[in-house]
């Protein structure tokens, strides 16, 4: 059976990874000031410049049922089944729309990732590897729903300005964090972003501590791969994250950039991996 694996444009995978794992993408539309454009048309740095210009965050328009239905229909011209992995339903209504679109379609399975960014990418790559093993699409969807509960996704951020603009923190929190140079981390929990730990110091040292804390707490990783995903970062920040991941024994350390739908601002970096102690060989 030929199986399509698809995601939305919040996946933060590189073009090379999309091609390698034959992952299809449906794009979000973004509005910022008087501009409307497809996700991916502007670089992360260009988005930051536009945010400064308009003093507002980019807004994504939820994909509707008709868009998903047309997208799935098009995929089914070339594939026997579709596995679609959505941005967390705790973040967008798009996931519900995709599920409703798929309800009357044969062999279209929609999985709520309960995560974002390359947390979605991890699930999509897993889906492709399972499909390549010859596993049936319904079973693949079940495995993804199992693994998403152990999909470790977190980030550490330099400033709270963007979270404040997005209504995710108060002006008092913004003032205190920025004055004291606190670098908070956020974690995906039950499908939504939550403040987690607080760090202080320069971002290279903070990234090193955040990565060590993460792998110490979430310490049963699938060592197949880990993503280092960032909006912008200094070479020192990325090097610190890579060192921790390589020392832990990850076989593949992948660096990717977070796209225009990220609401965490510059110098935000996270590590993302499955924390279930399994690998693709453990599933059938």
Q: Top keywords for this entry?
A:
284 residues; alpha/beta; 13 strands; 4-stranded parallel beta sheet; globular
How would you sum up this structure, described in words?
The protein has helices at about 15-20, 45-55, 65-75, 95-100, 120-130, 135-145, 160-165, 170-180, 205-215, 235-250, and strands at about 5-10, 25, 30, 35-40, 60, 80-85, 110, 150-155, 180-190, 190-200, 225-230, 250-255, 270-275. The chain has about 280 residues and is of the alpha/beta class. It has a six-stranded mixed β-sheet with strand order 10-9-8-13-11-12, with helices on both faces. A hairpin with a 2-residue loop joins β9 and β10 (about 190-200).
Strand order of the largest sheet: 10-9-8-13-11-12
Q: Could you describe the largest sheet, including whether it forms a barrel?
A: 6 strands, mixed
- Overall pLDDT, averaged? 89
**Spatial gap, N to C terminus:** 16 Å
Rounded to the nearest angstrom, the radius of gyration is 19 Å
Q: How many helix segments?
A: 10
Spans of at least 5 consecutive residues whose pLDDT stays below 50 are 167-172
Q: Helical amount among residues, as a percent range?
A: 25-40%
From the spread of the alpha carbons, the general shape counts as globular
Helices and strands: which structural class?
alpha/beta
């Amino acid at each position: 059976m030929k199986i399509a694996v698809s995601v939305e444009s919040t996946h933060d995978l590189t073009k090379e990874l999309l091609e390698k794992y034959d992952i299809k993408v449906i794009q979000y539309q973004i509005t910022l000031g008087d501009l409307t454009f497809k996700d991916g048309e502007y670089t992360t740095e260009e988005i930051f410049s536009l945010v400064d210009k308009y003093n507002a965050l980019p807004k994504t328009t939820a994909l509707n049922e008709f868009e998903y239905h047309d997208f799935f229909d098009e995929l089914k011209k070339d594939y026997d089944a579709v596995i679609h992995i959505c941005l967390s339903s705790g973040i967008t209504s798009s996931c519900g729309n995709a599920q409703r679109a798929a309800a009357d379609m044969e062999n279209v399975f929609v999985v709520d990732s309960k995560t974002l960014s390359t947390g979605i990418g991890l699930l999509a790559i897993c889906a492709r590897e399972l499909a390549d093993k010859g596993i049936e699409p319904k079973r693949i969807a079940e495995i993804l729903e199992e693994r998403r509960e152990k999909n470790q996704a977190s980030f550490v951020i330099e400033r709270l300005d963007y979270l404040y603009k997005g209504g995710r923190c108060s002006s008092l929190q913004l003032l205190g964090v920025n004055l004291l140079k606190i670098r908070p981390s956020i974690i995906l929990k039950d499908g939504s972003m939550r403040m987690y730990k607080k760090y202080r110091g320069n971002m290279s040292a903070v990234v090193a501590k955040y990565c060590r804390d993460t792998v110490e707490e979430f310490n049963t990783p699938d060592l197949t791969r880990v993503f280092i995903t960032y909006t912008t970062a200094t070479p020192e920040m990325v090097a610190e994250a890579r060192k921790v991941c390589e020392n832990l024994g990850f076989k593949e350390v992948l660096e990717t950039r977070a796209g225009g739908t990220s609401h965490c601002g510059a110098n935000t970096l996270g590590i993302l991996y499955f924390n279930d102690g399994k690998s693709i060989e453990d599933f059938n």
